[in-house]
TrEMBL record:
SUPFAM superfamilies: Tetrahydrobiopterin biosynthesis enzymes-like
Quaternary structure note: Homopolymer.
TM spans (from-to): none
Name this protein carries in UniProt: GTP cyclohydrolase 1
Keyword Metal-binding found: yes
Organism annotation: Bowdeniella nasicola
Involved pathway(s): Cofactor biosynthesis; 7,8-dihydroneopterin triphosphate biosynthesis; 7,8-dihydroneopterin triphosphate from GTP: step 1/1
GO molecular function terms listed in the Swiss-Prot or TrEMBL record: GTP binding; GTP cyclohydrolase I activity; zinc ion binding
InterPro entries xrefs: GTP-CH-I_C/QueF (IPR043133), GTP-CH-I_N (IPR043134), GTP_CycHdrlase_I (IPR001474), GTP_CycHdrlase_I_CS (IPR018234), GTP_CycHdrlase_I_dom (IPR020602)
Taxonomy of the source species: Bacteria, Bacillati, Actinomycetota, Actinomycetes, Actinomycetales
Amino acid sequence: MSEQLGAKRAYDAAGVERAIRDLLIAVGEDPERDGLRDTPKRMACAYAEMFAGLHENPSDHLDAAFDIGHEEMILVKDIPMYSMCEHHLLPFHGVAHVGYIPNASGHVTGLSKLARLVEGHARRPQVQERLTSLVADSLVERLQPRGVIVVVEAEHLCMSMRGVRKPGSRTITSAVRGQMRSAATRAEAMSLIMSGR
Ligand SMILES: Nc1nc2c(ncn2[C@@H]2O[C@H](COP(=O)(O)OP(=O)(O)OP(=O)(O)O)[C@@H](O)[C@H]2O)c(=O)[nH]1
Ligand SMILES: [Zn+2]
């Protein structure tokens, strides 16, 4: 299982508010001016959402599993995804595609749980490669499927609005496990992912 660190402590909204106020001062702003007065509080609310994944075990969403005897590929594609690059604390966002082949008992999870799994791993300081692997490894661990494929396509704002400044460039990462590694199965999954584009 790829390493993912969870929360070291409970979310401290007051601490985030203080830090944002200090940040505004440090960049040369006046945190008391009208437009900024409530910004630390707003950011504390926003960060609670954006880093909510730190305070859950995303794999737990997959406990909502049932046997329906379906043993062929299940793929949810174009799941919108927002995460925060851990190097710059700037967003990277795009879509995730998550597919798996259930095991012989046809053990499957709810479709929405695949999107919840992505959210849980995305809503924390993250890098795209680890996000991709963690989603795949959660599925392997909890569903014991025959195969898994996860593809994430994202634009990193740290590459768009600053630094190298290449807006529109997209990074594509994949994690493939088990039978999904076979050339034919992988090609089938990729053609489903690419269809309609
Ligand atoms: N592999 C990987 N790199 C990332 C991800 N998010 C951001 N990065 C990169 O992390 C690197 C950090 O490089 P540094 O040289 O330490 O930071 P920097 O001086 O701000 O780098 P520049 O962005 O090139 O200006 C940059 O190349 C980013 O593009 C990610 O999800 N995966
Ligand atoms: Zn970055």
